[in-house]
Amino acid sequence: MDNELRKLITKNNLSCKKITLKNNVRIINTPKGTFAIKKKTSKNINNVYKYLKSRAFDYFPEKVDENDEYEIYEYIDDIDEPIEQKAIDIMYVLSLLHNKTTFYKEVDFDYYKEIYENVNYRLEYLYNYYNDIIAIIEKDVYMSPSNYLIARNITKVYETIKFCQDGIEKWYELIKDKKRMRVATIHNNVCIDHILKKDKPYLISWNKNKTDMPIYDLLCFYKNHYLDFDFIDLFHIYESRYLLLEEEKLLLFILIAIPDKLELNDTEYNLCVKSSHFFDYLYKSENLITTYDQPKH
Q1: Which of 153, 177, 233, 259 registers the highest number of CB atoms within 10 A of its CB?
Q2: Which residue has the higher pLDDT, 31 or 290?
Q3: CA pair distance 45, 42, nearest whole angstrom
Q4: Distance between CA 197 and CA 79 in Å, rounded?
Q5: C-alpha span between 30 and 37 (Å, rounded)
């Protein structure tokens, strides 16, 4: 235990009975209860905690104290529940967070233009990248398993890029004359490990928070867990409490659909696994986007 940590524990009269290390967080058991101690990040998040409380949002652990090196939080003894329930809790907490902190801010044309140009640049780069890859693969007399998997499914990559190109044009037409944008405080680091449940759900790890479009929290959660959950149901749960605007939903689905860059510098086994996951993502995302707004029967 270093001096700064010892000073903070002594200052708060927390005589340690036991210290457990869990994911770079020290869990200390004391006669006063259990606390979590973590290293401070470069970002000061005290202001965001104060702001969230002022907006009647308190779904995060209470900070007990801090010094230059460490922060002490109340320890949330997470109850054992299915991860599907945790995913629903995340949708509930995010919709509440965005509801409580939404406001409209003035933006100039250049802001939307930058998003439009960045997306188009990514799409053009990916199109050329996969063109080069398939040109090399098609020269093989005998394709490796990973190359065969890519060649067999490359049409889906081109279809996805075309969908995104058409979508970003439609999005740009929707927003190019708008002078205000809806923003909120977003967590910006959403994953299943960052939701705890005790008397209520708690979001932890707020060090990446910022003010931006709410869809980026949904995008982050989807990217982290696209194969783990039914996101059609989850996004509907979210929208039952915080309805996305037309241009927000369109941009969300475009950003979800954009293919990743499939890096091919690896062993054949790993390339097969990576390629399989890559195309799983494309097909899962296509199903989400094409069926999301269809009525259920």
Answers
A1: 259
A2: 290
A3: 9
A4: 6
A5: 13
The two tokens of residue 152 are: 């067999």
pLDDT tens digits along 223-232: 999 999 999 9
Residues 249, 236 contacting (CB under 8 angstroms): no
**What would the DSSP string read from start to end of the chain?**
--HHHHHHHHHTT---SEEEEETTEEEEEETTEEEEEEEPPSS--HHHHHHHHHTT---SPPEEEE-SSEEEEE--------HHHHHHHHHHHHHHHHHHH-EEEE--HHHHHHHHHHHHHHHHHHHHHHHHHHHHHTT-SS--HHHHHHHHHHHHHHHHHHHHHHHHHHHHHHHTT--EEEEEEE-S---GGGEEESSSEEE---TT-EEE-THHHHHHHHHHHTTTS-HHHHHHHHHTTSPPPHHHHHHHHHHHHSPP-----S-HHHHHHHHHHHHHHHHHHHHHHHHTTSPP-
Q: How far apart are CA 257 and CA 126, in angstroms?
A: 12
Residue 59 forms part of a structural domain: yes
Which amino acid is present at 28? I
Q: What is the pLDDT of residue 297?
A: 43
pLDDT over threshold 50, residue 139? yes
What would the mean pLDDT of 154-163 be, rounded to a whole number? Answer: 97
Residue type, 129: Y
134 and 172 fall within a common domain: yes
pLDDT for res 1: 61
Question: Residue 107's domain spans which residues?
Answer: 98-291
Q: Which pLDDT value is given to residue 24?
A: 79
Both 201 and 272 in one domain: the answer is yes
Distance CA 256, CA 269 (A): 27
CATH of the domain at 284: 3.90.1200
